[in-house]
Fold this sequence. Notes:
By secondary structure, the chain is α+β, with helices and mostly antiparallel strands. Helices cover 30% and strands 27% of the residues. The chain is built from ten helices and 13 strands. Strands 1, 2, 3, 4, 5, 6, 7, 8 and 10 form a nine-stranded mixed sheet that branches. Helix 8 crosses helix 9 (278-288). The longest helix has 16 residues, at 153-168. Bound molecules: cytidine-5'-monophosphate.
Amino acid sequence: MRLRGSGLFLTGLSLPGTPPTGRRQPDHSLVVHAPAKLNLFLEVLGKRDDGFHELETLMVAVSLYDTLIFSFKEEAPEEVSLRCFDACFRQSSVGSALRQNATEGATGFTEVPDGRDNLAVRAAELLRSKTGCRQGIHIDLYKRIPAEAGLAGGSSDAAAVLFALNRIWQLGLSRDELQSFASEIGSDVSFFLNPQSIAICRGRGEIIEPLSLPNRLHFVIAKPPSGLSTADVFRHCRARDSPCGVSSLVDSLKRGDLRTAGQRLMNSLQSPAEELNSDIGRLKANFASINHIGHLMSGSGTAYFGVCRHRREARKAAARLRSGTSSDQVFVVANPP
Length: 337
Ligand code: C5P
């Protein structure tokens, strides 16, 4: 079942165990798949008094997912807990298979420590403090979206938690209320709660103008082993004297004119990121030698992507990228329909 929330989708509706209400639930899990995003355009318009930067950016959700499985813990009904797994796994895997393999210690899983700093836990705790809800939850988080990549994996997980817990805890919050909580967690979180998989985002990134496009977009993404901190990259960026607007890119995407769109991709965080991390320049050169429409760094990096005419072209580009290096992670993705 696809949720109206920027590519978030859900594959089970009831929870295992006994909820605090005492009602026994059938033995199913609530499973939410939380997508990554790419920035096809990102202009930094200036620094604000609160230390953040004013942005105009075009974000698109793509089919690279973290998976969150929600359940009640009978022994700790008022506790929020998280276990995090590195899911080096095919994307088609579903929750039950993931859990079974994880507990069996199958290769491909590395359990990583859970932490109160994780944005997913912060989202759950924020909902409790805003609403006075005392219920608990246990979340198993299977990570596929690389960290420090400019792909907003942590933000998407937080949005998935807000969306899921609003249902599970029956809080009855509106989308506007959830989006206002989302912006307190991080600048990118609100995007994942909007009804479309592509949107212009302004302000810090939390003011969302959803768009719809006539065609699906296909991409190849490469993530080098090194990462970049978002705060570092913003610290080194400078607003340009004559910033350009996103509208000409949006117009060409709406016309389905990918060739023109490819020439209008722009990210003003890319040049500070290139100065901070040599992998970005390497990826730029690799992508320039591959036949596709345009290429760019996503967000604050270090993930780099190419826009492709169709999935076949994206797969060919991925094969070329993989043959050049064994250290980069390479993904073929599209925006959800
Ligand atoms: O909002 P988020 O926690 O994702 O931002 C991480 C850091 O990136 C912020 O602390 C800030 O330094 C920088 N940032 C910024 N302007 C934005 C978004 C993020 O300066 N619009």
